[in-house]
Amino acid sequence: MISRIGFLLLVSAALGERSARAEGFYWSLKYDPSVPVGSMRSFAPNVTPLGFDIDARYWFARNWSLGIGGAWTRFYDTLPFGTYQVTSGAVTATIYRTLDVVSVLSEVHYFFDPERPVSPFIGAGFGYSSALFGVLVSDIDVSERHGGLVVSPEAGVLIPFDANGVMRQAVVLGARYTFTTSSYREAASLSFIGLTLGALIY
Amino acid sequence: MEKAVKPRRILGCAGALVFIGCAPAPDIAERTTREIIATTYDPKIDFGSFATFAVASPVSVVSDTTDAGTLSADDSALITDRISANMRDRGYLQVETSSRPELGLSATVLSRVDTATVVSPGYWWGLPGYGATPSYWGYPGGSYYPGFGYSSVAFKSATLIIQMADLRDAGASPPSPLADAAFSSDRGTLGIEVAWVAFAHGYASLQADLAPAAPLAVDQAFAQSPYIRKR
After folding, report:
1. Which residues of B touch A132 (CB under 8 A)?
2. How far is the CA of A153 from the CAs of A41, A48, A179, in angstroms?
3. Residue A167 gets which letter from DSSP?
4. Of chain B residues 11-30, which have a CB less than 8 A from chain A?
5. Within chain B, which residues score under 50 in pLDDT?
6. Alpha carbon B66 to chain centroid distance?
7. How far apart are CA B96 and CA B108, in angstroms?
8. CB B7 within 8 A of CB A61
9. Cβ atoms B32, B201 nearer than 8 A
10. What is the spatial distance between Cα A90 and Cα A84, in angstroms, rounded to a whole number?
11. Cβ burial, residue B202 (10 Å; 0-12/13-18/19+)
12. What is the pLDDT of residues A67-118, one digit of tens each?
């Protein structure tokens, strides 16, 4: 009888620690260099080093977290001598283009095995994005903002600093795909793939 | 003891990158120091319906920094020949000025440094020094009027201007309020409508000397105006 109780205590202690490692309120801050794909390359073809996202998430049960986050990515391009169509005409000159994509997303993540030293995860975000398209050519300064829905699946791994005990800090490595319905001229939609590098902080 | 990640460091790095990304955009002065070719047209005009054209020569010079008049015969030919070649490539038939062409093209070098950030097509014909070649294409009492305007601080540099006038309907009353307000009150109601204008900034010096690339500017002006084509 005593041995049975002892066994149950050991099991509950083990289970308790496992669940404690994966519960609570966390912040995530990540750096996201991104590469544009699809038709948005007609406006911004270059890889950008400028992108960040931040989220607040509640990690519940063992494998799941729900949260809300925001992301910002800036693409830019300088065309030394390009033609820009304007109303009833065109201008050929050096064209400076910028594209800022700001998204607010509700997010869900699934962690396959949070107790391991390297824990894979997948996640997805859904929400609203606002894209500001800016064009400078000669003394023409055009900026247009277009809103749209955004979907952003991601995958990666968590590498906790504190393998023993409750996870309080972890490195996050992964990749994230972002698709928004915002459009501008030849860019029928916006989509880009970002590498994510950041930290998860309890 | 747990090592704490220092959020300040992360935020610091993030801030540095944001700062780089938010660097000031090039200002207007920087954006207008290099070559610029702008074209604008009257969208009400059906360019495909014209058949013939003529190009006025020589190229006029309007300037507040040097003597006005015309370019040399050689320099003028560089521009007018290129205009003619582009128009022929678009299917139009070149005729003599005296043969009542349906489209009249002329070129001007505008060199002004004190004002002129806003210029309406046709306006420079009233400036001192303009030769008015070829005397409003032979239409007595004529004056130019545009259905559109164009403004640019790039006018502070010398600008090669190519203008296409609708001579088929020359003498008709100006159809637009802009034309009425700007031109009819002091120049009469008869006019020659400006159908298309190209402004090539940076292709001439303030002394009205053409840059070597000026003929290429003519080509680019037509290249970005695909609607100029005879059906």
Report:
1. none
2. 20, 19, 9
3. -
4. 11, 13-14, 17-18, 20-22, 25-26, 28
5. 1-5, 125-126, 128-129, 131-133, 175-189
6. 21
7. 19
8. no
9. yes
10. 6
11. buried
12. 999 999 999 999 989 999 988 899 999 999 999 999 999 999 999 987 888 8
Residue B38, token pair as written in the block: 């702008």
Q: CB distance A88–B41 less than 8 Å?
A: yes
Beta bridge partners of A130: A102, A147
CB contact under 8 A, B2 and A49: no
> One-letter amino acid identity for A114?
P
Q: Which residues of A touch B25 (CB under 8 A)?
A: 96, 98, 134, 136
- Cα–Cα separations (whole angstroms), residue B173 to A78, A167, B88, B139, B145: 45, 82, 29, 13, 10
pTM of the model: 0.76
Residue A3: strand, helix, or coil: helix
Residue B137, φ and ψ in degrees, nearest 5? 55, 25
Residue B33, both tokens:
């120091």
The span from the CA of A16 to the CA of B118, in Å, is: 76
- Residue pair A44/A73 in contact (Cβ under 8 Å)? The answer is no
Please, where are the H alpha helices in A65-128? none
Read off the tokens for B28: 């207007």
Considering CB atoms only, which of B5, B26, B38 is closest to A89? B38
Q: Closest-CA residue in chain B for A165?
A: B2
d(CA A198, CA A53): 9
Helical spans, DSSP H, in B94-138: none
Task: Tell me if A30 sits within 8 A of A195, measured CB to CB.
Answer: no
Q: Which residues of A touch B2 (CB under 8 A)?
A: 161-162, 165, 168-169
CA-based radius of gyration for chain A: 22
Mutate to test the interface with B, among A76, A77, A138, A142 (most CBs of B within 10 A): A138
Cβ-based neighbours of A47, under 8 Å, separated by 6 or more: A33, A34, A35, A36
